[in-house]
Amino acid sequence: MHRRRVLTATAVAAVLALAACAPGEDAPETGDAGTSAGGGGEECADRTTLDVWSWRTEDADAYEQIFDVFEEANPCITVAFQAFKNTEYNQILQTGLTGSDGPDVAQVRSYGLLQPLVDGGNLVALDDVVPALAEFDDAILDGARGQEDGAIYGVPFASQTIQVYYNTAIFSEHGLSEPETWEEFIQLNDTLEAAGVTPLAVGAKDAWFVPTVHDALTAAQYGGAEFQQALREGATDFTDPAYVASIETFKDLEQYMPEDVVAVGYTDAQVLFTAEQAAMFAGGSYELAFFQSTNPDLELGVFQVPPPPNSALDHPVSAGYADGNWGLSAASDSTEEAETLLSWLAGSEFGQMVANDLKQFSPVPGVSFDEPLMQEMWNLYQENPAPYLLLVDYRYGDPVGTDLMGEGGQQLFLDELDAAGVAARIQDGLSAWWTPGQ
C-alpha cells in the first residue's frame, strides 16, 4: 500500500505567513532607444497619459517602477498602469478595446487567444511601427502573428519554459540526485514515497494546470516538436500510440501525487512545495519568483524528465511557449506616444528589467539572466526545445486543446476515462475546427 499525504491547515498557514513577510500630437521625437530628444530634463507644454492594462496583478508594483524608468527618459508621457484579475481579464479587455474608456497599450494573449482581437480589428499591426521586432526570434513572433495575414500584432514580453523543480535539501537528505534515466526517476519517486514525502506536488482541481504537468512529465515520450510537425503535416493525429502512451504514463505517475489529486488546487500544490512537504513541482518558469519570495530559504534545482523506454525521443526536452504580447489599441487617441512606448518595450532596457525584476524570460535579443536557476532553465530549453503543444497550435478554435486535455486529465484521474479515451476526446474535440495537415 502506498502511503498518501494530504495538505494540512498548518502547512497552509505556514506558507501564508511566509508570503505575508516576503519582501498627442506633441509626442517627443525619439532616438534608437525610444527616449525623448531632450532627455529627462525636457519640460512639456502638454503631457500625454497612456493607459496600459495587464493581467499580471502580481507584477503591479514592479511594473510601476519599470514604467518610472520610461517616464524619466520620456518626460512628456505618463504611463497609467492597471492590472486586472487574470480570470476576468479577457472579457474586460475585449470590452475596453471596443469602448471609449479602454487602454492605449495592453498585454494581450498569444497564439489562438490573440486571434479574436485581430479578427475584430481591435489591434494595430506593428511590423512597420516597431522596427526592433525584425530582430526577435521567429518562433516567439508566432505567438503575436495574425493567423490570416501573418502580420505582427504585439511586442512579445515573456517566454516560458516547462520543467520539474526540486527541493535540493530534500533530495540531499534522502541521497537523491537529478535523474538521468527513467528508471532513476521512478526510483527516486519510490524512495520519497517510502519516506512519507510527497514526490510530486500536483493540483488537478484546476483543469488549466493539468496539460502543463502532462507536458513537463511526458513531452519526450510522445515526441515533442517532431510530433507537432507530424500533426501539422497530417501524418498523424492525437490518437497516435505514442501520445496515448504518454497519457498512460501520466496516469501511472498519479501514485506519486497528493491523495485525491483532482480535489487538490493549483495553489494547494504550490503550498505543498513551498512548505517543503513535497519534493518536486512540475511547472513553468513563471513559478520561480513566487517560490523564492514565498520561501526565501527554499533550495531549488531543476531538471528535465528522462523519457521512458520505447519513447518517441531518446532524450529529455523542455516545453516552451510565448506567454503574451504588448498590443496597440486601434482605438487609441495617443498613437504616436503609444508607439514610443512600444518601441521601448521592444528594447534591451525593458528586456533586462523583465529578466532581473520580474524573473521572466524576456524574448528581447541580447538579454542575459543573472539568476542562475533562470539561466539553467533557459539553457535546458535551448539544448532540447519542444512546444507546449496544445497551447501553441490548438487554441485557434473551440474547444481549445488545453481545455480538452485539462478536463480529460481530470477524468483520467477519476477513472472515468482511460488513456485512449482521453486521446479520443482530444481528437474529437479538435476535429470540430481542426483538420490534420491544414
Broad structural category: alpha/beta
- Residues in β-strands, percent: 5-15%
What sequence of helices (H) and strands (E) makes up the elements?
Answer: HEHEHEHHEHHEHHHHEHEEHHHEHHH
Principal-axis shape equals globular
How many individual helices? 18
User: How many domains comprise the coordinates?
Assistant: 2
State the major sheet: 9 strands, mixed
CATH architecture type of the largest domain: 3-Layer(aba) Sandwich
Mean pLDDT: 90
What is the top-level CATH class of the largest domain? Answer: Alpha Beta
User: Could you state the CATH homologous superfamily of the largest domain?
Assistant: Periplasmic binding protein-like II
Helix content: 40-55%
Amino-to-carboxy terminus distance: 48 Å
Point out poorly predicted stretches: 1-41
Rg, Å, rounded: 23 Å
Q: Count the strands?
A: 9
The CATH topology of the largest domain is D-Maltodextrin-Binding Protein, domain 2
Keywords: Signal
Protein name: Extracellular solute-binding protein
InterPro entries: Bact_solute-bd_prot1, SBP
What can you tell me about this protein's structure?
It holds the Pfam family SBP_bac_1. Keywords: Signal. InterPro entries: Bact_solute-bd_prot1 (IPR050490), SBP (IPR006059). This protein has 438 residues and is of the alpha/beta class. The protein folds into 2 domains: 178 residues, D-Maltodextrin-Binding Protein, domain 2 (3-Layer(aba) Sandwich), CATH 3.40.190; 205 residues, D-Maltodextrin-Binding Protein, domain 2, CATH 3.40.190.10. The chain is built from 18 helices and 9 strands. Strands 1, 2, 3, 4, 5, 6, 7, 8 and 9 form a 9-stranded mixed beta sheet that branches. Helix 2 links the parallel strand 1 and strand 2. Helix 10 crosses helix 18.
